Amino acid sequence: MELLYKSTRGGESGVPASRAILEGLAKDGGLFVPEKIPALDVSLKELSGMSYQETAYQVMKLFLTDFTEEELRKCIAGAYDGKFDTEVIAPLAKVEDAYYLELFHGATIAFKDMALSILPHLMTTAAKKNQIRNEIVILTATSGDTGKAALAGFADVPGTRIIVFYPKNGVSPIQEKQMVTQKGDNTLVVGIHGNFDDAQSGVKAIFGDRALAEELDRAGFQFSSANSINIGRLVPQVVYYVYAYAKLLENGELSDGEPMNVVVPTGNFGNILAAYYAKLMGVPIAKLICASNENKVLYDFFQTGEYDRNRPFILTTSPSMDILISSNLERLIYRIAGEDAGEDVKLMDALSREGKYRITGDMQEQLKDFRGYYATEEECAKQIARVYSDTGYVLDPHTAVASCAYEKYRSETGDGTKTVIASTASPYKFTRSVMEAVDKEKYGRMSDFELVDCLEEISGTPVPAAIEEIRTAPVRHRTVCEPEDMKQTVKGFLGIE
What we know:
Helix content is 45%, strand content 15%. By secondary structure, the chain is an alpha/beta fold. The strands form four sheets. Strands 4-5-15-10-11-14 form a six-stranded mixed β-sheet, sandwiched between helices.
């Protein structure tokens, strides 16, 4: 049976998956959501014996129903291959009393690879299915990880170009080096003088510019997105929560039907929303623990029912979570509003106009499976040091925020439910923050790449290829602009004046 998509703001419905992936954002500015969440049609027991690739097929076939089996299997095979440095794709590491789901074994050593390895395959297949003759221009804002993962996925893919905007002083040195050394004649990386929210708002404004869309169409281009607002990003993320439960079942860590909790370090809300979708599909997930850094807009929302972005923007050591407008939250808001597009529009207009909105008591009641916690910079550093000292396992700062949130939740509730923590980035991506947390006096004066070698020594894990290749790679992208000049920068790259 075909599963169709609709906009959270009511302007589009009955949209096939392939078209939703190509459009990225609905024409009315809303986000595409499935008209219903499909239930898993194979048992978790059956899934427990399957590979990551097979699990991906069993989950994604339910969401992407206008892709043939052959098309979808080909996309999956092209995505989850030798680009990952471990055959199982997403291993689980038991550390103390939690299971860290390592989502950073892909080409750019962050969890964004899990979805962005497959998105180019889905998008080019969708373009063929829809007889798209225009060149697809991927337009993306990044807080550090999405940008590089999208660039790696789309570099030199025929029929596509990719433009990535990032906050010039708001990502780690290694994140920036990964992006500005990106090869590919169809790639452009642009630093903006501003923060991630400025970059994201600029990209959304470009998407909403109908006159520009017409101008692009005349020149043979059309926009799409690689951000987590694209349903083609969200669906592959659901897979690894299904897979995590199935593997714990296979290993005898869980019995069939036994609940598990999930802790997710959260910025744009896509990763934890994927866990929520897995729960709705039938995975026995009990609590969804949303971990924030000092930009704790989501923590405050879960505490009070008010989403308020009117606050200082704080640059932290977990930059992928330095976000005050969590775009994917709109999908959850729409659901708890009873899929009432009018209510969703009212709240999103309030966010746009006043920077805040408050949900009703009834809506808040539907969030009882979510819990919010946050970690300060000091707590995050102490957690990296403590976990390393006690176990030898090295956390990156984002995973450390989640680890802190888990400890706070356990201490507050006494809940002993087995728990999976989404480990979203390799510590090698944030060597300075990690090594200074371990021993600031010893490592504080070293260069970033000296720290890479020290991290290899203390962690006992080899330096990933993603880091080795940027040690000496030349900088290829030097463009910097103001947020108000983003549109002109895009037009210049596409040769449209």
